[in-house]
Design goal:
The protein is an alpha/beta fold. It folds into 2 domains: 185 residues, Metal-dependent hydrolases (TIM Barrel), CATH 3.20.20.140; 95 residues, Orthogonal Bundle (DNA polymerase, domain 1), CATH 1.10.150. Helices cover 43% and strands 13% of the residues. The chain has 10 helices and 8 strands. The chain has a 6-stranded mixed sheet. Helix 4 crosses helix 5 and helix 5 crosses helix 6.
Length: 289
């Protein structure tokens, strides 16, 4: 789906606010924020940064309320995208070496002008019948244990935190359960370490979080003085089991999470060309309003 389509779907789903947090790119924010302004849904400029982290865990940091045009942010993203492009070409060559005839040109076409990544390679594999689904493409070829997996260059957690802060953003640890710590004490210590580095929030509500995990993370957020965020982790057709606006297909994210982020952004005195009130007096990180 296009960024504008995602915002339209959010509005149709009854959401009052949304953040667009694409991986390693801000390319969709202008379109999304323009549509959000037109239809009257509050919008936060966002981004998701993949960080270096020991296997089998993964660490993603979410930036909310960023200035998409911040020079340091854009120069770093340009480098990450160039490295991603190099990785994509290597993955396609590995697949070709295994007798799977997909082309990089077709993968780029499937991205429709966006940042090219593994989901588009997965679609290309499904398109030629090499796999029955994009999920199988990841489990068999593209995931960490796949035969065509190549790791990508990532920022360290500290680098990512400093980058998002330099762009004026609030930083939240996405889906903490995916750090895959062996026990709760290890996970709690990791969150504490990130808080000491400057982490602002943790994603309490997520489609991978059971009720017990939500309760646990909610308590830790209070203990460490962190804001609480939440999201469905909607990815369109790549995650058909996830419905936009609902974690685990049933739980809504409280509006108070959004309002708390905006209050923190206000407190940090973001420049007026980044932080603007919408017609309804709500705060929208949206330079188009």
């Amino acid at each position: 789906m296009s960024p504008g389509d995602v915002v339209q779907l959010a509005h149709q789903s009854g959401l009052s606010a949304i953040a667009l947090t694409d991986h390693d790119t801000t390319a969709g924010l202008a379109e999304a924020s323009e549509i959000a302004c037109k239809i009257g849904i509050d919008f936060l400029h966002g981004i998701e940064i993949s960080c270096s982290y020991p296997r089998p865990g993964t660490m993603h940091l979410l930036g909310y309320g960023i200035d998409p045009d911040a020079p340091k942010l854009q120069s770093t993203l340009k480098q990450l995208i160039e490295e991603r492009d190099t990785r994509n070409a290597k993955v396609v060559r590995l697949l070709n070496d295994q007798g799977i005839r997909i082309s990089l040109d077709r993968v780029i076409e499937l991205a429709k002008g966006g940042v090219v990544g593994r989901p588009h390679i997965a679609h290309a594999l499904a398109e030629i019948g090499a796999v029955t689904s994009t999920a199988q493409a990841f489990s068999k070829y593209l995931g960490q244990n796949g035969s065509a997996y190549i790791d990508k260059e990532r920022l360290t957690p500290r680098q990512a935190i400093e980058l998002i802060h330099s762009a004026g953003g609030i930083i939240s640890l996405a889906h903490p359960i995916q750090l895959r710590k062996q026990n709760r004490a290890q996970l709690r210590n990791e969150i504490k370490n990130l808080a000491d580095m400057g982490l602002d929030a943790i994603e309490v509500i997520h489609s991978d979080h059971r009720e017990s995990v939500v309760v646990m993370l909610d308590e830790w957020a209070d203990r460490f003085g962190l804001l609480k965020t939440g999201g469905s982790d909607f990815h369109g057709s790549n995650k058909l089991h996830i419905k936009l606006g609902f974690a685990q297909s049933r739980r809504r994210i409280p509006r108070s999470y959004f309002d708390a982020i905006v209050a923190r952004l206000r407190k940090r005195h973001l420049s007026r060309d980044v932080l603007n009130p919408s017609a309804s007096e709500s705060i929208v990180i949206n330079s188009h309003c």
